[in-house]
């Protein structure tokens, strides 16, 4: 009871992306179980600017810093607050949690049975009218007004058919809509009077109705699994049971309970019909296509992802999705709502890691193995910042199998760092190997070209291969990445399984490297990205290696986005360089001779990639493939974006089903399977080796 005193004081409250954080005067009213806030202390005697009922609320310290915490009310409303320091946050959090627990337990102890007080809150009645006593004969179905969606009586179906399961799914969708209407009707009740929105029975009804719908969804899933097992014996091997895929998307569950019928083919937008009518990938040419860099134009697309509006508007969808997930659950096959997508494919995101081609090309200009390893570490650590588009964590499109992305960068030779005391034009004998040219007598350009290609080589598991090369500098990088995502409660973790290898052909060196894990934190408030885990870079020929740690923020104290690492010579175990800082801010490199170098990533120049116009791209190139989804997201039309996205995913499922039934293996276009990894079909090390052999024969 000593901790139940009223407390008050100033806190910062997050309003929106435009207004940001604002100081407000907060009062914890323990007797009423309310958290109220005012513009300032002087206006405390006036009506509060906002009030949260704490019964049933969840108080959560944020993992983004030591000052922030959130108050999530049972009504779905949320306050994101920030104290002046960690001690003050702990004071507010502990007092709020005590008050919340006290009033939540009081509801359970003092709440009379619901059947003695039942109110008709059907959407067709007035939300402000007093409750009407329910008749004893009125059952739950009539109370929720499910209406014409009723199962036929007097018949028993031995084995439920797929169409019937679709009917059940639609009935449940209707019930979910009715349940949401019920909650809205409760929340629209006045704050005072005979029947209020804070009525204990109604608060309990809100909680139990949501639990009931979750239970029904679990039962429906069990029914699907049972039916699938019954059907297995009667279907040919390799047949896919298409009806097991949900017929109504998650987003459509939140449209006032109206079951959405898919429009007839004639009513679909032309772009959707186009997406569904593209021929089978294996019927298209799978021969690798040589992309002419001269056809590529400097990219003018700038899809920054700083818009939080859609996430805030669709919070109920996120809450519903989270209620279906379990800790540690693999999210590979979970269809996420469209509004959390950023406007680019995962394949293009890998390309954006190459946005500092000057640092990439400069690696091979290092005069010693030690300097080349340090330059590679510098390039590696600066690549992740530009790979993120804005501060808001959103998810790139999942590439469909066979999807590709091509681009290139042109880097003026004068902008590439060379080694002190050396001439950039003086190359090793290996670099003097002449590669075949399409035309003779062409003047050597004053820029280097870095070409990039990526391909989605597998769907389950989702594996991407990407390759980049600079022919003039005889260097290339080949990598394959398998993305494994898991639900971690209030965050989502993505593990990048795979390996990349950088080849410096003029030095005969190979640098093998791995990738860190990524985490989307605070997914209920302002989602943000954090990198974590240990990665290693190793060059077997020179004996140099690097160990880099991406530190996740501890619960109390600590900095965000911190990274530390060291480069050492394995034979002597000598550390030749240490690095520390933030991977999205400033990095500090300290060398063995005592020199220190600072790299400010926020001021680092970014070279725009060059991409072919849409009309010159193939039907499976990322930007053309996803163009209608991207345009709809850019216009803020989430429904249309969802429709286009569903059409692409449905086409991919149909193609996969057909390949399984015909036992036709998938044919990749640019990458070949090599053990556990994937290798570009025409890597530079093979081209250089062939050119060397040809020159030797001619001599």
UniProtKB/TrEMBL annotation:
Heterodimer with OSBPL9. InterPro entries: OSBP_sf, Oxysterol-bd, Oxysterol-bd_CS, PH-like_dom_sf, PH_domain. One of its GO terms (molecular function) is sterol binding. Belongs to the OSBP family. This is Oxysterol-binding protein. It catalyses: a 1,2-diacyl-sn-glycero-3-phospho-(1D-myo-inositol 4-phosphate)(out) + a 1,2-diacyl-sn-glycero-3-phospho-L-serine(in) = a 1,2-diacyl-sn-glycero-3-phospho-(1D-myo-inositol 4-phosphate)(in) + a 1,2-diacyl-sn-glycero-3-phospho-L-serine(out). Keywords: Acetylation, Endosome, Golgi apparatus, Lipid transport, Lipid-binding, Membrane, Phosphoprotein, Transport. GO terms for biological process: lipid transport. It comes from Lanius ludovicianus. GO terms for cellular component: cytosol; Golgi apparatus; late endosome membrane. Pfam families: Oxysterol_BP, PH. Residues 4-101 form the PH domain.
């Amino acid at each position: 009871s000593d901790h139940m005193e009223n407390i008050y004081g100033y806190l910062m409250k997050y309003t929106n992306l435009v207004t940001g954080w604002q100081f407000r005067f907060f009062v914890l009213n323990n007797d009423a179980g309310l958290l109220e806030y005012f513009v300032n202390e002087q206006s405390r005697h006036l009506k509060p600017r906002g009030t949260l009922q704490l019964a049933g609320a969840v108080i959560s310290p944020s993992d983004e810093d030591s000052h922030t915490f959130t108050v999530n009310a049972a009504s779905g409303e949320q306050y994101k607050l920030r104290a002046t320091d960690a001690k003050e946050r702990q004071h507010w959090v502990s007092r709020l949690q005590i008050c919340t627990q006290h009033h939540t337990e009081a509801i359970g102890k003092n709440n009379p049975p619901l059947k003695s007080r039942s109110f008709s809150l059907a959407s067709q009645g007035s939300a402000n009218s007093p409750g009407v006593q329910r008749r004893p004969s009125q059952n739950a179905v009539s109370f929720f007004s499910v209406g014409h969606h009723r199962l036929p009586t007097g018949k028993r179906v031995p084995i439920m058919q797929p169409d019937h399961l679709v009917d059940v799914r639609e009935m449940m969708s209707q019930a979910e809509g009715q349940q949401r209407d019920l909650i809205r009707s409760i929340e629209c009740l006045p704050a005072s009077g005979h029947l209020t929105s804070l009525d204990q029975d109604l608060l309990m009804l809100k909680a139990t109705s949501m639990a009931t719908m979750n239970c029904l969804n679990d039962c429906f899933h069990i029914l699907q699994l049972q039916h699938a097992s019954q059907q297995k014996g009667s279907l040919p091997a390799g047949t896919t049971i298409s009806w097991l895929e949900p017929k109504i998307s998650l987003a459509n569950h939140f449209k006032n309970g109206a079951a959405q019928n898919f429009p007839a083919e004639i009513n679909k937008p032309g772009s959707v019909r186009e997406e569904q009518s593209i021929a089978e990938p294996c019927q298209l040419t799978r021969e690798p296509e040589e992309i002419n860099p001269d056809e590529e134009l400097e990219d003018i697309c700038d899809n920054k992802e700083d818009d939080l509006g859609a996430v805030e508007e669709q919070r109920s969808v996120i809450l519903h999705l989270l209620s279906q997930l379990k800790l540690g659950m693999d999210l590979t096959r979970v269809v996420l709502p469209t509004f959390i997508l950023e406007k680019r494919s995962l394949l293009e995101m890998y390309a954006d890691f190459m946005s500092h081609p000057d640092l990439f090309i400069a690696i091979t200009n290092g005069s010693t193995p030690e300097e080349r390893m340090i330059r590679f570490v510098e390039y590696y650590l600066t690549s992740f910042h530009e790979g993120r588009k804005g501060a808001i964590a959103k998810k790139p499109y999942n590439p469909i199998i066979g999807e590709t992305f091509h681009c290139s960068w042109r880097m003026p030779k004068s902008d590439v760092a060379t080694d002190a005391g050396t001439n950039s034009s003086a190359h090793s004998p290996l670099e003097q190997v002449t590669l075949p040219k399409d035309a003779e007598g062409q003047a050597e350009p004053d820029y280097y070209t870095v070409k990039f290609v990526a391909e989605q080589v597998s769907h389950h598991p989702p594996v991407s291969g990407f390759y980049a090369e600079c022919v003039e500098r005889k260097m290339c990088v080949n990598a394959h990445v398998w993305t494994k995502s898991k639900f971690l409660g209030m965050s989502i973790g993505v593990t990048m399984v795979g390996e990349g290898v950088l080849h410096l052909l003029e030095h005969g060196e190979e640098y093998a490297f791995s990738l860190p894990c990524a985490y989307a934190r605070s997914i209920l408030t302002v989602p943000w990205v954090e990198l974590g885990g240990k990665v290693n870079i190793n060059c077997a020929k020179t004996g140099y290696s690097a160990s880099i740690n991406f530190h996740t923020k501890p619960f109390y104290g600590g900095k965000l986005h911190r990274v530390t690492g060291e480069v050492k010579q394995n034979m002597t175990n000598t550390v030749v360089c240490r690095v520390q800082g933030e991977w999205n801010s400033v990095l500090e490199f300290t060398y063995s001779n005592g020199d220190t170098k600072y790299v400010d990533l926020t001021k680092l120049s970014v070279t725009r990639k060059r991409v072919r116009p849409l009309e010159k791209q193939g039907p499976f190139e990322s930007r053309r493939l996803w163009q209608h989804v991207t345009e709809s997201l850019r216009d803020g039309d989430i429904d249309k974006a969802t429709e286009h996205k569903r059409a692409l995913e449905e086409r991919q499922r149909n193609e996969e089903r057909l390949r399984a039934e015909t036992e036709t293996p998938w044919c990749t276009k640019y990458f070949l399977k090599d053990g556990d990894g994937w290798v570009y079909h025409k890597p530079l090390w093979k081209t250089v080796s062939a050119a060397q052999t040809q020159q030797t024969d001619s001599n």
